Sequence to fold (115 residues):
Amino acid sequence: MDSPAQTWFQVASRRMEWLSSRQTVIAENIANANTPGYVGRDVQSFEDFLKAEMVAGGGAEVQEAPASWGASKDGNTVVLEEQGILAAQSAGEFRLASKLYAKGHQLIALAAGRR
Fold:
């Protein structure tokens, strides 16, 4: 059985992996913002990612994103403003997760008597 610290580090690591996958998909959406008929995509929720990884392993599943901001006349569902918001949100969440991960290492080193 994993210790709470091991479990915490595993979840933090998986979160950063998921966020990295999400940033990749967002970048692909932005790159295809002018492609007629392109349907925007996103990765599955983090909770679903963790559940699927426990069962089968593997990366985040990419799926069609709902066209919450509508679609253009040519059928493209990517809205650059929305993708910009998602990119900034994912970047901020990644920075937070990486800082928490580093802080966890610092606390373990401090508890072990090393700085």
